[in-house]
Task: structure prediction
Amino acid sequence: MFLLTRRARHGAFSQLSSSMWPIVAQLQIAGLSHPLTSYGLCAILGVLLGLAAIWRLAPWRDLPRFEAICAATLGIAFGLLGAKLFYLAVSLPRIAVEGLGPFLESGGFVFYGGLIGGLAAVASYLRACGLPFLAFADMATPALALGHALGRVGCFLFGCCYGAPTSLPWGVRFPDSPFFDGPADTPLHPVQLYEAGFELLLMAGALYLLSRWRSANRPRPGTVFLAWSASYAVFRFTIELALRGDDRGLGAGPLPPSALISLLLFAAALLCWRRAQAASSSRTNTDPSGDAERP
Result:
């Protein structure tokens, strides 16, 4: 997927070229040909591995596996719906010019829209089942980070969500292609891989925190998910303002939409952390384990 290219002037390997891999295969379904994109393949892998992780991790937070899988499946379904609706919302200026059809047919999704839609569906389901939301959110954080990391790898292979031009030696050149709407043969920040790598680091941190749940110094309920939320918000805000080069749609003044939501997510994570601390402290006398939590 990558080729090292030599700058004759400097006489050193200095750039990467990506050959892209937008279409993995053509699937024949009911006599019709349907393209399987690299983004779609990575998304499918992310869903399958995420569900497998939830099946494995649910007992770590004393959650029934069946209900955890049902909650995750609902979260994925409504997450896809939310991601698509958010994509349409931020694309309204282009939709007014080009029409709605191309945007419905394309694979455009926005992660934050999926996060909002998925969390709303999961919270509603868990409330109906009488299960604690924070326990599920903590347990599902590694799966969420892994799935998103794979999704960003898919973005890189497909050529979307690309970075700004750069002179750094690891700048990636994408070829001229109908799938790539950025500047062809120009070194760009591989922001998709930056984000994938950061999500894998957050996944490792979340697994470490979860592994301490049976210890005496167990984290408070919500610690894992809120730590991921705050960390990812800071990272995403930085990427959006400094390193992204693609069109991110309708925002608020100079802020792209995902940068604005990153600010809100960071503020919400801090607020929820303080509330969780206060609630945990108020229940310490009645629950010596410190792990009590209302559904």
Notes: The first strand starts at residue 2 and ends at 7. Strands lie at 2-7, 12-18, 23-29, 32-37, 172-173. DSSP finds nine helices and five strands in the chain.
